[in-house]
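INPUT
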Amino acid sequence: MQILLELNFRQRNSTRVIILILGLLAFVLFKNSTKGCLFLGATLALMLRNPKYVYAFGKTIARDLKAGYRFIRLNIFIMFMERKQRTLARIFQERVKKHPKKPCFIMGDRCLSFQWVENYTNKVGAYFKARGLQRGDCVALIMETRPEFVCLWLGLSKIGVVTALINSHLRRDTLQHSIKVAKANAIIVGTELSDALAEVYDDEEVRDLPIFQFSDEEQRENDQFRLLNGAIDLSNALRLQPIEDLTANIAECKPRDKLLYVYTSGTTGLPKAAVINNLRYLFMSSGVYYMLALRTDDVIYNSLPLYHTAGGIIGVGNALIHGCTIVMRKKFSASNFWKDCIKYECTAAQYIGELCRYLLSTTPRPEDTQHQLRLMYGNGLRPQIWSQFVSRFNIPQIGEVYGSTEGNSNLANITSQVGAIGFIPLFGRYFYPLQIIKYDEDTGEPIRNANGFCQRCAPGETGLMVGKVNSKRATTAFNGYADREASEKKLLHNVFSAGDVYFNSGDMLVSDILGYFYFKDRTGDTFRWRGENVATLEVEANITNVVGLQDCVAYGVDIPYVEGKAGMAAIVDPDRRVDMQHLSAGVRGSLPAFARPLFIRLVSDIPRTGTFKLKKRELVRDSFDIHRVKDPIYYLNKDGIYRLLTEQQYEDLLNGKAGL
Ligand SMILES: *[C@@H]1O[C@H](CO)[C@@H](O)[C@H](O)[C@H]1NC(C)=O
Ligand SMILES: *[C@@H]1O[C@H](CO)[C@@H](O)[C@H](O)[C@H]1NC(C)=O
Ligand SMILES: *[C@H]1O[C@H](CO)[C@@H](O)[C@H](O)[C@H]1NC(C)=O
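OUTPUT
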């Protein structure tokens, strides 16, 4: 309890705290009995001046005690690790000593032990040390899923080198941009992506970097195999590299040293490199481990990409830190999901919302329930399909987790409340660094009162989620992006009192009286589609560029039975001059598949707000409703061409038959 209270203790006025302590004392004296609960509930009600909380308290006390207990264990673990100056590489070494022979990563028919990973990463570290890389340098890693993906960055971290995990779907401009913002000193590329790298080779800043090309056995045996111009054959070099003991190098690294850059499109513009230091990695990964009560002997099925937080940090981290076994797969496959889970005897699996829907849309088969999963965890399981999913596949527990890569506050539903992304214990409401504040729907900006401060939302009111930044505590520090200016944009100052700093998540949440939180939406500048964040600014810039017109706004719209938001762009074109063939080709050439708008609407004008921002709200509400909207609406057909949305397609979209 002490640690929970330590969270922002000073921030609240002391009377509340005194009442709470009295209530807790009474609770302890009555030894957890009903009387004690009522007493504590009444105290809480007094604190919050609202009798409804007595009821809420009775309903949630068991949940909150469980969560409180797990939360305390998590915090103790993190504190302990920081005190002992443990980096990830160091913690992993200790893991290896405990069970060297245990499988760490499994993929296809490869099964790699902890000792194997330790040996391999020592080679990687030693090799790059000999090539002159030093603590604080950065390497961009462009590779598809394979165990070496993790081994490479873990090995680099042993000599203090930061790895930028580049999204393997990026091409051209965005790829170039991602390499540049990380200020990489070298590039490691998988042979499967060497063509993508070749496309950005003409850029001066990229061309000057040494390139290390990695290929697996299969690729080397292929007749087509060739090295990129000037690239070094990394797989061969590592084969010849002797294993070196890097303990001394590891000891030089500190828990707050940068470990990885993970890209997010944040809420504005191009992908940004969010800084993940060792402590943050520990916290994110252990957060899930402790809050969902994972176990060391869990075998976790991870078919998510390794360059995102979910797969690469939360998933992989449970092996590196806590000794679980991770089963990887190059690309998620709905038809092989349960087969794999059965084959590798998985006990837990990770999901994102899309994945659950793809699984649900397969034809029922006996494998559906022959697996031994006791837990699936992840983000984005929609309330509409939650119950159906759980009963068809017989999943005993769902752990829906909320948290952003760069954000500093996290929630987890550890009680399977359908639809909820998590909860904050009632007694933690004022201490947990996460708050929901009122905001202006048009601009997405927080509303400030006469004194210039923001206001908390009551249960049931949708608001903007913000997380308090406390740079002293690892768990709530905001480490920002590689680019300083981008970091500053995400921060709000003077939120509840002069001088405080909060991180603006850009997400809209609503809480209920029991303290559960539900995800509502994202503020206007990004939306999620196919598990990726799409930045509307980027889409707008590209379309404007392609059609050469004045204005364009991009936004996300809901499609029934589909999670995330489909992209839609409204182009100002009163004379209807846009050439759809040209636009189709332009969009294909400049935007990654997930960012291409599914719908295009030609409008005569777009209303603006007082600050000349384009008003999106009405456009979002109109969506692609061809019965209501008189403007022409085009639909991105399977062949990549925009054509007028037909009545049949419209019906299919509404009925979930559009094959999205
Ligand atoms: C790891 O390296 C050690 C010493 O170089 C060697 O004895 C051992 O067999 C290696 N283990 C594996 C799994 O490669
Ligand atoms: C198009 O989008 C890409 C990112 O996908 C971005 O790098 C590029 O700058 C955009 N083009 C224009 C003209 O803004
Ligand atoms: C989230 O809450 C629901 C409802 O209580 C519960 O059934 C589910 O198991 C919870 N998820 C987890 C991971 O506990």
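end of record. The first strand starts at residue 103 and ends at 107.
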